[in-house]
Specification:
The complex is a heterodimer of chains A (about 775) and B (about 150). With about 775 residues, chain A is an alpha+beta fold. Chain A is about 25% helix and about 20% strand. Chain A folds into 3 domains: about 210 residues, 2-Layer Sandwich (Aldehyde Oxidoreductase, domain 4), CATH 3.30.365; about 160 residues, 2-Layer Sandwich (Aldehyde Oxidoreductase, domain 4); about 325 residues, Aldehyde oxidase/xanthine dehydrogenase, molybdopterin binding domain (Aldehyde Oxidoreductase, domain 4, 2-Layer Sandwich), CATH 3.30.365. Classes of the chains: A alpha+beta (about 775), B alpha+beta (about 150).
Chain lengths: ~775, ~150
């Protein structure tokens, strides 16, 4: 058999029912069987009750635990559960409702999922980013389910005239074992709604050994059937009566603006109805539109053709000279000089001076575009002081706020319908495209769809930063690392919010720079200044990408310099199993999580290294031209280690025969989706390592589409990616899955390339560096 | 007037003959299963089958589809149970799902042409279809499953 599959992979369990209902304000939940005043809009996790705390309560609008908001039971027994986070491919709109169903003893076959619209007062925080949905909502969703179960049991006990202790909810009915009587959930719904809502402290959560769904990986995503039949609805699939189609010509340089335009030729294009200016905001303006010229047409193809015929004059503004070669030199120069000290242990200067030798590595990681398969798109229908939007957004609550502000109307008058996202990767945390649609709909008095083309997406993205990383490691005469200085220089996401933000924000330096986990006596982390010249935004894994690339490449360099095995070097640097104390770091972000619940635990870091080494057969002999590389990184409070095998032919052509990744993400819901996320992370890691680079000249992005910004295709993808999940300990808090798989991939790959060829890749992407 | 058949139904167009078939299908006919990804035949999200061949509808003008039979994801199988669709679900291929209609149509066309493709043939035939989520390992498994039932 030619096909390589992943052995031992849990598969399948297809079940086709209509699982998903899209909701709008016209379609509020019907058949609400459970009612009550069970609202807690505050942090609800308390350590005595649930063993750990999370940062969920500190997010905007915190957490809402309310079965009335999240669960409805119809008289026919169908249980509808709200998914309040955005589905962009992680499986979250399956896994969060699944947690509720598990805890309330609902039969998943009788559950429907309904997508929440953007309303954080009602649902709590909806920002689907930072790999935090499961870690923030495992306990709240369990509490919601447990509250619903308790109310159903109370109602059943009364109906049967028995003490509540004698009944038990089991698979969609409440059973009185002594008499064998049982009542279905649908039958109980009306009575249950009259029951008092139990206090959170009184809730009894299920014993994990009784779980039917959680941790099993046997439930497919609710959208699976719709996706395979073309009936799943993404942002562009919304069609409203009288809807107009728009594309926009935007200023090619960040901070530029429109001077004048001539739309006469555009108006001659068949199907074009109107050419008009769209309001833009000066840079930086968070997520406000760039402005430009819109072409309105009867279909998207006509609008695109019309835009091609526009004649536009732009004022390029202050970033007109942004140029990537010069900017790289500027970053590298800054990295060779002292910068803002962010972490300081011991005395790194004197330790480097007294070192037997110093190994210095300078690493470069360029801008990246997200290129989700679905380019930004949104539909808006603005009528008077009311607005309804349909859009693939990661931040439905933030989108609602921004639409209201942009139109100058109350937030209560804005409805955000969240469609499926055709990929997000952080791009769709910024709702500029929805704001464009709202502005145009208001101006035209008709529903408008704004479609970004791929060229728009590549050229007007909120790009991943560009960074120079410089690490100096001092070794004593025994080859022990005694000093470590890491300088990171990169324009910050903060520059998208405020002018003159030149330092990385706490949430960026906390991604693999100051939280570096090695046991070294003298450590200093610094951040020299870097001004931004384009819109910088979150990209899956964010600053972990450059930081992990530098740190884990240096591990490979040190292994080589001291003649040691990469894995042995890595474990020596990680050092003893311990909880790291970072007292010298002023603002330890820790992904927004309390350090007590989510400390940097080097025992867990060591464990993923050891697990991947064992399962991935580290040290196995490989054919000539092949090499193995290893890397580990903690991000989004999860621990991930990867081994990559590369094969490089005599012309320098790079292929990847095998990838092994071990992940410790604590308690988990759906291991099958963890596996898919990690498989995908290897592809994204390979894409950025091999090809990913956005460059600027004259302030303009030089790439346009998948031909000059290539991503990995199936014929270049790893032949096999094995995923090894660390089983959670009791009460291990859940941690991130969507993002932490990406950062270790590139350094594992380049360490493997070094093993195969002796060539050290210090600048990404690899591009033609291996060609001979 | 351009006439063509989409999923067995006759459709007419008397607008711009150079309109890409993709936008006719999506915006004029209203079948939204076929997706826009790049507009340059680089990603395969818009793949449909025209007279038994997979084509990129984003660069195919509607005049080139005149008097032809076009099948979109909605028309691949009346209940969505084409062997490829079933295999896709069995293997849990999709993540975000946006590229999957194009992937499925490409795979269906491959199997029409070559019912038992091997590893290299699958990778070659599917290499025009990008999945940014990175579902490739499962795509390959699913195509194989659809072709063999194993």
């Amino acid at each position: 058999m030619n096909i390589i599959t992943n052995p031992g992979k849990p598969r399948g369990f297809e079940r086709h029912v209509t699982k998903v209902e899209n909701v709008s304000r016209r379609n509020v939940m019907k058949g609400l069987g459970i009612a009550g005043s069970f609202v807690l809009a505050a942090p609800i996790m308390s350590r005595p009750a649930f063993a750990y705390e999370t940062g969920a309560g500190k997010m905007p609008h915190g957490v809402v635990v309310d079965p009335k908001v999240f669960v409805a039971i119809a008289p026919d027994g169908i249980v509808t559960i709200i998914a309040h986070r955005s589905e962009m491919g992680t499986g979250v709109r399956t896994s969060l409702p699944l947690i509720v169903a598990e805890e309330m003893e609902a039969d998943w076959n009788k559950v429907k999922v309904q997508q929440a619209h953007g309303d954080e007062v009602r649902y709590g925080n909806q920002d689907t980013d930072g790999s935090r949905s499961t870690r923030h909502y495992l306990i709240p969703m369990r509490q919601i389910g447990a509250a619903a179960r308790t109310m159903l049991e109370s109602a059943a006990a009364k109906r049967l005239g028995v003490p509540v202790t004698e009944v038990k909810a089991t698979n969609h009915e409440v059973v009185h074992a002594a008499s064998g009587r049982r009542i279905g959930f649908g039958d109980l719904a009306a009575d249950a709604s009259k029951e008092a809502v139990p206090a959170i402290a009184s809730l009894k959560l299920k014993d994990p050994k009784d779980f039917r769904y959680l941790g099993k990986g046997e439930i497919s995503i609710v959208d699976l059937h719709d996706i395979t039949t073309g009936s799943a609805h993404y942002g562009a699939d919304i069609r409203l009566p009288g809807m107009k189609y728009a594309v926009i010509a935007r200023p090619p340089v960040t901070g530029g603006k429109l001077v004048s335009f001539d739309g006469a030729d555009a108006m001659k294009v068949s199907g074009v109805e109107k050419v008009m200016e769209v309001k833009g905001w000066p840079w930086p303006s968070k997520f406000q539109p760039l402005g430009g010229v819109a072409v309105i047409a009867r279909n998207t193809g006509a609008a695109i053709k019309g835009r091609d015929a526009l004649k536009v004059t732009w004022d390029d503004g202050a970033n007109a000279k942004y140029e990537s070669v010069a900017y790289r030199a500027q970053l590298e120069d800054a990295a060779r000089k002292p910068g803002l000290v962010l972490r300081k242990e011991g005395d790194v200067d004197s330790a480097l001076k007294s070192a037997d030798r110093v190994i210095t590595g300078e690493y470069y990681a360029p801008h990246l575009a997200h290129v989700s398969m679905e380019p930004p798109v949104a539909v808006a229908d603005v009528k008077g002081d009311k607005a309804e939007v349909w859009a693939p957004v990661q931040s439905p609550g933030g989108t609602r706020e921004d639409v209201a502000k942009t139109l100058g109307i109350p937030e209560d008058n804005v409805t955000i319908n969240v469609t499926l996202l055709g990929g997000g990767f952080g791009r769709k945390s910024k709702c500029d495209y929805a704001l464009e649609a709202a502005l145009l709909s208001k101006a035209l008095g008709a529903p408008v769809k704004v479609q970004w083309t791929r060229e728009d997406d590549v050229q007007h993205d909120f790009l991943h930063t560009v960074s120079a990383e410089r690490i100096e490691a001092g070794l004593d005469k025994n080859g022990k690392v005694i000093a470590w200085r890491h300088r990171s220089v990169a324009p910050s996401i903060a520059s998208t919010f405020a002018a003159n933000a030149v330092h990385e924000a706490a949430f960026e330096i906390g991604m693999g720079l100051v939280d570096m986990p090695f046991e070294i006596a003298n450590i200093q982390c610094e951040n020299p200044e870097a001004p931004a010249h384009t819109r910088i935004g979150w990209f899956r894994s964010v600053s972990n990408i450059p930081h992990a690339f530098a740190v884990q490449s240096m591990v490979g360099e040190l292994a080589h310099a001291t003649g040691r095995d990469q894995k042995d070097m890595l474990l020596e640097l990680i050092g003893s199993p311990r909880i790291i104390k970072l007292d010298s770091v002023k603002d330890l972000w820790n992904y927004g999580e309390p350090y007590d619940s989510y400390p940097i635990d080097t025992a867990r870091l060591r464990r993923v290294v050891e697990l991947v080494a064992e399962k991935g057969a580290w040290g196995r002999s490989v054919p000539k031209g092949h090499g193995l590389g290893i890397a580990v990184h903690r991000s989004f409070v999860s621990y991930v280690a990867s081994i990559v095998e590369v094969a490089i032919d005599d012309k320098g052509k790079l292929t990847v025969p095998r990838v092994d990744t071990a992940i410790d993400c604590g308690t988990y819901v759906n291991p099958e989706r963890i596996q898919s996320q990690i498989e995908g992370a290897a592809i994204m890691g390979l894409s950025l390592a091999k090809y990913g680079e956005i460059t600027f000249k004259d302030g303009r992005v030089q790439q346009k589409n998948f031909d000059d910004f290539p991503v990995i295709r199936i014929d270049e993808s790893p032949l096999i990616t094995n995923v090894h999940i660390v089983p959670p300990g009791p009460d291990t808090p859940p941690s991130g899955v969507g993002e932490p798989g990406v950062p270790p991939f590139a350094p594992a790959l380049t360490n493997a390339i070094f093993a195969a060829t002796g060539k050290r890749i210090r600048a990404l992407p690899i591009g033609k560096q291996l060609e001979t | 007037m351009i006439k063509l058949k989409i999923n067995g139904q006759e459709k007419n167009w008397d607008g711009d003959p150079n309109l890409p078939l993709l936008w006719f299908i999506r915006d004029e006919v209203g079948l939204t299963g076929t997706k826009f990804g790049c507009g340059e035949a680089l990603c395969g999200a818009c793949t449909v089958i025209m007279d038994k061949q997979a084509i990129r509808s984003c660069i195919t003008s509607i005049s080139d589809a005149a008097d032809r039979e076009v099948t979109t994801i909605e028309g691949l199988h009346p209940t969505g149970d084409h062997a490829v669709q079933k295999a896709w679900r069995q293997v849990n291929v999709p993540q975000c799902g946006y590229c999957q209609a194009g992937q499925i149509m490409q795979a269906a066309a491959l199997l029409m042409d070559n019912p038992k493709p091997d590893h290299d043939q699958i990778r070659e035939a599917m290499s025009g279809n990008i999945c940014r989520c990175g579902c490739y390992q499962r795509i390959e498994t699913a195509v194989h499953l659809a072709s063999t039932g194993v």
